[in-house]
Amino acid sequence: MRECLSRRTLLKAAPVGLLSARSLLSQDAVKRPGEQGNSAAPSKPAGEKIRGPRQDLDMVWEFVRAGHNNLPRVKELLALDPMLIFSA
Predict the structure, then answer these.
(1) In contact, 87 and 55? CB cutoff 8 Å
(2) Calpha distance 8→13 (Å, rounded)
(3) How far apart are CA 77 and CA 83, in angstroms?
């Protein structure tokens, strides 16, 4: 007979599964044949974004406020600084 999977058993097993997946997916654990690793120069993680210079916070704040109800102002601010579209 199949055992029912409850939330409690799932939560008990989750840390073990996460640790196993992390070790399996780490770059150190998986070496391809013929690949030479350079341990002297660590690289950035694959998911880390490359960030540009910091934007003017006052302009970002004005862009966000204008985005709620003032489309002409949004277009004007984007004409001044097109990178505002990527501010979060």
Answers:
(1) yes
(2) 9
(3) 10
Output the pTM of the full model. 0.43
Return the sign of the alpha-carbon dihedral for residues 10, 16, 21, 26.
Answer: positive
Question: Can you list the alpha helix ranges (DSSP code H) found in the chain?
Answer: 7-25, 57-67, 71-80
> What value does the mean pLDDT of the chain take?
75
The 10 Å CB-count burial string (b at 16+, else e) for 42-71 is eeeeeeeeeeeeeeeeeebebbeebeeeee
Give the whole-angstrom CA distance, residue 32 versus residue 34.
6
pLDDT band at 11 (very low <50, low <70, confident <90, very high): confident
CB neighbours of residue 7 within 10 Å: 7
Burial of 87 by CB count in 10 Å (0-12 exposed, 13-18 middle, 19+ buried)? Answer: middle
